[in-house]
From TrEMBL:
Primary residence: cytoplasm
Lineage summary: Eukaryota, Viridiplantae, Streptophyta, Embryophyta, Tracheophyta
Record EC number: 1.2.1.9
Subcellular location as annotated: Cytoplasm
Protein name in the entry: NADP-dependent glyceraldehyde-3-phosphate dehydrogenase
Reactions this protein catalyses: D-glyceraldehyde 3-phosphate + NADP(+) + H2O = (2R)-3-phosphoglycerate + NADPH + 2 H(+)
A GO molecular-function descriptor: glyceraldehyde-3-phosphate dehydrogenase (NADP+) (non-phosphorylating) activity
Organism field: Medicago truncatula
UniProt cross-references to InterPro entries, sorted A to Z: Ald_DH/histidinol_DH, Ald_DH_C, Ald_DH_CS_CYS, Ald_DH_CS_GLU, Ald_DH_N, Aldehyde_DH_dom, ALDH-related_metabolic_enz
Domain Aldehyde dehydrogenase: 24-458
Highest taxon, organism lineage: Eukaryota
Keywords: Cytoplasm, NADP, Oxidoreductase
Length: 478
């Protein structure tokens, strides 16, 4: 992106600056980190490689700014968030361009992510005012043995400095889902964006900068994980960490110490299909759930558990839809675009090769060019195959044939993951029974897993949210 107009403020030559204390800065390290375009596999952008000393200064500023921000009236906090949301939407084209080039997100989906993010910021502002504007009043005689002699008024207070670490696949949306709630609650934010997606995140932060938030309240530091990753997560100035990603979260939890952690570390979302399901509806949702953004979503359908008696029919319907998926560059709004990195593509290929060696049925020929992997449906997958349990984060979907509902529930619950799942049936009693038995944070009925609408609960086991989609329509139509 050319350094023209106001955007020149956040560029130093061809290197994007980091954001601290209300200013766009160059790192004293004199180093930068290259961001590789997944499609061309060539360097696309560069960001600053911040030093540990710069992280220390950011933390000091964030702590000081938070103290003042906590005293700012709720309505003023909300006013600034609404302003940032509007600016974010105005900049949707520029941010979407970064998403296309950094993470190979299809162009239309990139724009949608930015608009959705703006809506989420506004929603958090409204909900924050409503929730935080209420206190709780208790009287002492509500507990046995006490008289009505004491009164207690409780209210919510900020945690302090929040370290937000979003993932590459939604570097804007999952960043604002951390930033907006933290800010309306009176906290300050230190954002460490993923390398792939860092420039889109910096453009997003620029929108908050234009909105006029106090200096030091929002910071965005970029750099190598080996240099500042552990330093950030173990920093004594951090009061809470919100992380979305993979196995890195396990390491963070071991190193962070006794501070609140909010983590979402991936999923192996199971799709259980009963013999009475609307198979056309199932096939459409498997395509949507399994192959949207090339399967690079924590809420993607990642294993299909289908009753044997309808498996042949379902597989044929899904195969027909897979054949219609467009494959190519994100600029062309293709359905299947390159996965984020060569290492990701190699990992996916390893899962495919393992399945091939162990006898899975390939419904399409496996094809790969660089980071671009063609959509692949694997039938007759068995539990001894890696793809049955591991998260590919790519356009490869396994089908496991089951002989009973209990078998499907057992496979779902045997997984180490417990994010989301879905059930397809016209029988409401079976739908509720299976949903209750599945050890997943959210179970969608007659719809693919999804994060949203954004005000719905998004959680992992042992909590539970059951979302009924089209069940009543299906029961009436059927």
């Amino acid at each position: 992106m050319a350094a023209t107009g106001v955007l020149a403020e956040i560029l130093d030559g061809d290197v994007y600056k980091y954001y601290a204390d209300g200013e766009w800065k160059k790192s004293t390290s004199g180093k930068s980190v290259a961001i590789i375009n997944p499609t061309t596999r060539k360097p696309q952008y560069k960001v600053q490689a911040c030093s540990q000393e710069e992280v220390n200064k950011v933390m000091d500023s964030a702590k000081a700014a938070q103290k003042s921000w906590a005293k700012t009236p709720l309505w003023k906090r909300a006013e600034l968030l609404h302003k940032a949301a509007a600016i974010l939407k105005e900049h949707k084209a520029a941010i979407a361009e970064c998403l296309v080039k950094e993470i190979a997100k299809p162009a239309k989906d990139a724009v949608t992510e930015v608009v959705r993010s703006g809506d989420l910021v506004s929603y958090c502002a409204e909900e924050g005012v409503r929730i935080l504007g209420e206190g709780k009043f208790l009287v002492s005689d509500s507990f046995p043995g006490n008289e009505r002699t004491k009164y207690c008024l409780t209210s919510k207070i900020p945690l302090g400095v929040i370290l937000a670490i979003p993932p590459f696949n939604y570097p804007v949306n999952l960043a604002v889902s951390k930033i907006a709630p933290a800010l309306i609650a009176g906290n300050s934010i230190v954002l460490k964006p993923p390398t792939q997606g860092a420039v889109a995140a910096l453009h997003m932060v620029y929108c908050f900068h234009l909105a006029g938030f106090p200096k030091g309240l929002i910071s965005c530091v970029t750099g190598k994980g080996s240099e500042i990753g552990d330093f950030l997560t173990m920093h004594p100035g951090v009061n809470c960490i919100s992380f979305t990603g993979g196995d890195t979260g396990i390491a963070i939890s071991k190193k962070a110490g006794m501070i609140p952690l909010q983590m979402e570390l991936g999923g192996k979302d199971a799709c259980i299909v009963l013999e009475d399901a609307d198979l056309d509806l199932v096939a459409a949702n498997i395509i949507k759930g399994g192959f949207s953004y090339s399967g690079q979503r924590c809420t993607a359908v990642k294993v299909v558990l289908v009753i044997e008696s309808v498996a042949d029919t379902l597989v044929e319907k899904v195969k027909a839809k897979v054949a219609k998926l467009s494959v190519g560059p994100p600029e062309d709004d293709c359905d299947i675009t390159p996965v984020v990195s060569e290492s990701s593509a190699n990992f996916i290929e390893g899962l495919v090769n393992d399945a091939k060696q162990k006898g899975a049925t390939f419904c399409q020929e496996y094809k790969r060019e660089g980071n671009l992997i063609w959509p692949l449906l694997l039938d007759n997958v068995r539990p001894d195959m890696r793809i049955a349990w591991e998260e590919p984060f790519g356009p490869v979907l396994p089908v496991i044939r089951i002989n009973s509902v209990e078998e499907g529930i057992h496979h779902c619950n045997a997984s180490n993951f417990g994010l989301q799942g879905c059930v397809f049936t016209k029988d409401i009693n079976k739908a509720m029974m299976i949903s209750d038995a599945m050890e997943s944070g959210t179970v969608q009925i007659n719809s693919a897993p999804a994060r949203g609408p954004d005000h719905f609960p998004f959680q992992v086991k042992p909590t539970k949210s059951i979302q009924l989609v089209r069940l009543i329509d299906i029961m009436v139509d059927g």
